[in-house]
Amino acid sequence: MPGTALFDATDFDTAIGRCAVAWRGDAVVRFRLPGPDLLTGPLMDQARRIPTPETGPRAEVLTRIRAHLDGDLDDLRRIPLDLTGLPEFHRAVYTVTRAIDPGRTLSYGEVADRIGAPGAAQAVGQALGRNPIPLIIPCHRVLAADHALHGFSAPGGIETKQRLLAIERTAGFGEPTLF
Predict the structure, then answer these.
(1) Where are the alpha helices (DSSP H) in the chain?
(2) Residue among 117, 115, 123, 116 nearest 95 (CA)
(3) Which of 5, 32, 120, 144 could covalently link to 48 via disulfide, CB atoms 3.0 to 4.6 Å apart?
(4) How far apart are CA 52 and CA 169, in angstroms?
C-alpha cells in the first residue's frame, strides 16, 4: 500500500560525506553513499525517516561504518543484513562479495566462478549494479578482469569506487596487468 513505511531510515555524517542507512528491525536493508536525495528514490521510497540512533545495535552499525570510512578497516560482516525479496542469484553474488576482505579484490568472473556460474561475469555486474547495500556488501571490491575501474552505480561513480578502494589501501586497482 503506497505511503506505508516498510523500514526506518536515517542519514549520518562520515569521513566521505553524508550517508544513509535503512533498517528492518536491527538488520540493514538499504545503504546509500553520499549523493543527492539520500532518503528518496527507488532504494529509500518506502522508508520512515528516524533520528540518528545514539545507542543500541543501530548506533553500532553507524559507528562501524564511520570507523571504516575513517580508515580503521572493518570487514563490516557482523552487521546483520535483510536481503528478503532479492533474487537468489543476487543473494549468492552478495554472499561472495561480502566475503572479500578490505584491501582485496575479485574480478566479476571470479565472483561468477565462486557462485558456480562460470561465464556469468556480466550477470554478476548487473547484480552488483543493483546492490541495495553498497559498502556493507562491498561491490566496490569487484573489478574488471584487467583490474580497471569500470562503472560503479553508486553516487559519484568510478571516483567513489576509487576513493573506497584507497581508504581500504587496496593495491593494484586500476593498473593494467601484464598477463
Answers:
(1) 56-69, 88-98, 108-114, 121-129, 157-167
(2) 115
(3) 5
(4) 29
pLDDT of residue 5: 61
Segment holding 8, helix H or strand E: strand 7-14
Q: What is the pLDDT of residues 113-140, one digit of tens each?
A: 999 999 999 999 999 999 999 999 999 9
Residue 19 among the catalytic residues:
no
- Given a contact cutoff of 8 angstroms between Cβ atoms, the answer to whether 89 and 123 are in contact is yes
Point out the catalytic residue in the list 20, 139, 142, 167. Answer: 139
The three-class DSSP label of residue 95 is: helix
- Three-state DSSP class for 178? coil
Side-chain-facing half-sphere of 103: CA atoms under 13 Å: 6
Can you tell me the distance from the alpha carbon of 110 to that of 124, in angstroms, rounded to the nearest whole number?
10
CA distance 161 to 179: 24
Distance, CA of 53 to CA of 88 (rounded, Å): 31
Q: Helix, strand, or coil here: 23? A: strand
Beta-ladder partners of 48:
8
What is the pTM for the complete model shown? 0.89
Structure-model confidence comparison of residues 83 and 178, the more confident one: 83
